[in-house]
Each structure stands twice: as structure tokens, then as C-alpha cells.
Amino acid sequence: MTAQDDATTLFEQLTGQSPDGIWSAPGRVNLIGEHTDYNDGFVLPFAIPHRTYAAVGMRDDGRIRVASTFADDAPVEVALSELATLFPTPTGEAPAVAEWAAYPLGVAWALQLAGAAGQGVDIAIASDVPVGAGLSSSAAIEGATASALNDLWDAGLDRTALARIGRRAENEAVGAPTGIMDQMASMLGEPDAAIFLDCRTLDANLIPVGIAEAGLAILIMDTRVQHAHATGGYRERREACERGAAIMGVPSLRDVSVDDLARAEELMDDVTFRRVRHIVTENQRVLDTVTTLRESGASAIGDLLVASHASMRDDFEISVPELDTAVESALAAGAIGARMTGGGFGGAAIALVEQGAVHAVSDAVTAAFAASGFASPHLFTVTPAAGARRDA
Ligand code: GLA
């Protein structure tokens, strides 16, 4: 059974009827540009073939009910008029509903705040995006739900507006202080392209990556170390970036260039400076990666990926031993480049590998994990895939 079938079956079990439609949105992987999004900087993610499906049907009693195949708990049901009493979730607190339900309910709430309104709905969700792997399973839920309600409620919002709705749900309903990269990648993905996004203006340009044409593959190395961004390290990194920008007297670290780093080092403590240096150099690496892809193709970006990982490991300090082992063992086995991807503290790394070497690199990574006593990683290749859409 596919995830689309699972969503349909769950909907039928829930309501005894067929859904009015099925919408889906993908997870994403980020090629380069980490923690730059909430600093108004640049990112280069692409949507992956793994998707979350929402089977949705209208109901006429003004209530919204959500169910999911990946949550053991019962469906959650509230009146649409009550959403404003559940959200926003105060900073640092858990949502008033189960966290999985806060994503789709938060999207409905954020759409209401944007002026959208409509009938009650039943929503059944199923997904094949690995959860907790740093592949944006949450943006996929948000994108599928936002697309469905946008159509059913005739809200007429464009993809960028729907990405903002998803981000608002994540920030204010779930309480995770994330940027907008994941939602934009999930909404705007196209086969064979990465999305070069300016997170200040939300200008998005599709960049052909030509990975398959160059005889290459992107290998995802899911460490299966679970991470969460609502708490802890992610929030601390964000605060350090805000501190650094304030010391530099600029609205965000987007406004600090590599040439400014010597002055930054004089003005701030060592930890804040290293956080700043990661963001400033990472923004430059995204720009360099786009130029390199255009001029020389995917086989030439390996060094930029490796430098990005080193910066996250040493300056931003968001890697973990499993991620470092994945990157190092992939490179030692011949990968052209490798880096952790996503928010860090667990999740996945990517490796850029010649197609003929995928097996050898995978075997080497698996062996390195076993030798270190880590749980076996989950390894698979991905190609850039389509963004959110209506499937049925
Ligand atoms: C998570 C967040 C994104 C982004 C990345 C790090 O995926 O959801 O907004 O900050 O981490 O690049």
C-alpha cells in the first residue's frame, strides 16, 4: 500500500465515506545553506520523492477532525471557531493538543488568521517521509493540509503564501522557532531542480542540478538519531545569531559579509563569533554553490559541501558523532562531497556520490556505524521531486 492508499483507507475508516480529494506535499533535503533561513540569508534545498498525503472531506457542522496513521492516539476534533482558543502556543510550552495534531490544526488556524474560512473538514494523514530524520516531515504535513484547505475553502493563496501559513503553524501552533526553508521547498519543488531561495525577499529561482546527467546520486544517510527543534539547541543557536546581529548593529546576519568577520571577532565573545562566522560563510557558500552548479556542474560542488559540514561541526556545533561518522566514512569511501543536512543534533547527512559508487559508499557507512557501536543507519538515494499538489 502506498501512503496515498493509506490516507484514503484511514479516511474511509474515520467517516465511512470517500474523501472529496487527496492532496500531498513532499519532504525536502537541503543541498547547502543551513540555519541561514532565519538570518534572512540564502538556502538551496530540493523536494524529495517522499510525500505526506491528506485525504480530506467536507462536513457541515463547522468542526475539524484530524487523524494520522503515524500517531497512535485517537483522532483530534474541535470546532473551527475554537481554534483561536488553542493557539498560539506560548513560547516554550507544549501545544494544547497532541503535537502531531498541532500541525494540521495550526495550518487551519493560520489560514483563518489570513482571512480564509469555510466548512468543517475531516482530514486523514499518511506519510512516507521519515519522521525525525531532518527531512521535513512536518513541512510535508503543513504543505498537504494547507493545499487542501486552500482549495476547499477557495482561499486563492499562492504557493509562497501557503508556505508562510505552514511556517506560522510550525512557529506559533507547534512552538518550533524555525525558518521558512522547509515550507518553501515543499511548496515549490520541481523535478531535477533545487530552489535557490533568498529568505529575506522570498525570491525563489529554480536551479537545474543535473545530478543524474553528471552520473551522480544524492545518498541520504539517516542516522536515526532523533532531533526536535522546538527546544534546546536550535533555539539557542537562533538566539546567538540575533545577539551577533545586534552587536554588529544590523537587522540580521544577512547584512554581515565575509570581509566584516575580522571586526566581528573583535566585538564579540568566541562562541557568538563562531556562530556568526558559520552563518556568514555559509551564505557565501550557497552563492558559490549556485555559481559552481551553473558554470561547472554538480561534480564540482563537493568541496563546498565538505566546508559546510566542517563549519557546522566546529563553528555552529550542531553535528553529532553519528553525523560526523556518516560524512567521514562516505568521503573516505570516495564520495565527492558530504555534509549533515537540516537543523542538526541528529537527523540525516547527504553524500554526493558517483552512481557506480553508491553501493560501496553505503557499505562503508554501514560498516563505520557498526564499528562505532551506532544503530544501523537508513540509507537511500533521492532525486529532486515535485512540490505540493492535488493528487485526486
Ligand atoms: C530546520 C528548520 C529550517 C532551517 C533548518 C536549518 O529544518 O525547520 O527552518 O532553519 O533547520 O537550516
UniProtKB/TrEMBL annotation:
Catalyses which reaction? alpha-D-galactose + ATP = alpha-D-galactose 1-phosphate + ADP + H(+)
Q: In which pathway does it act?
A: Carbohydrate metabolism; galactose metabolism
Alphabetical list of InterPro entries matching this protein: Galactokinase, Galactokinase_bac, Galactokinase_CS, GalKase_N, GHMP_kinase_C_dom, GHMP_kinase_C_sf, GHMP_kinase_N_dom, GHMP_knse_ATP-bd_CS
Binding residues for ATP: S68, G132, A133, G134, L135, S136, S137, S138
Locate the site labelled Transition state stabilizer: R28
User: What's a Pfam family this protein contains?
Assistant: GHMP_kinases_N
Record domain Galactokinase N-terminal: where: 10-57
Q: What class of enzyme is it?
A: transferase
The answer to whether UniProt assigns keyword Transcription to this entry is no
Q: Which NCBIfam families match?
A: gal_kin
* HAMAP family referenced in this protein's UniProt entry, alphabetically: Galactokinase
Under PANTHER family, the record lists: GALACTOKINASE-RELATED, MEVALONATE KINASE/GALACTOKINASE
Q: What is this protein called?
A: Galactokinase
Task: Give the source species.
Answer: Microbacterium murale
Its gene name is: galK
